[in-house]
Amino acid sequence: MRFERWNNNRKLVVNTGGTFKAIEQFVDRYENIAISGMQYFMFVRQKYIDVPVRFNTRIYSCILIQNNIPYRWRGRYNEDTDLSLRALKDGWCTALFNAFLAHKEVTMTMKGGNTESLYEIENGRLLMAQSLQKQHPDVTKITRKWGRWQHSVDYRPFKGNRLIKKEGVVIPKGVNNYGMVLVKK
Question: What is the value of pTM for the model shown?
């Protein structure tokens, strides 16, 4: 896995821990961000305008979790989506960073992980979608996308969850690049 910075509509490989430091310092400003993480590189497209951070949505795989939240991993499928939904339903916030991207292999393109136990078994994708719908029927539908079964979650009910800044926190003005510099190759 590699990490990228999305800046001025360009995806740039990052060879420093600055991305992690930036996310941690952002999250530490607030009392109620339960889960945060980096967006997958394939979901941020160059030449399209998007926000640097999206709030109150699912956080997949590359996750920073606040240790004092009362939720733990459960189930066999969609554990990250389930964890995000339980936190959001209780009024917590999530922060998905588009400014920093996790460059992971696209699902079903390599062996390992859930490939044999989920994606390659008959109706595995449908079982996965049904599992999340059973856990969260109020916001989850089952659909077909890209020729396969998928879950579709409506995150609109959580848009009202608001960040609560920690007392005494002063957010500095200006840009902090956390040691990241552009290097011409």
Answer: 0.86
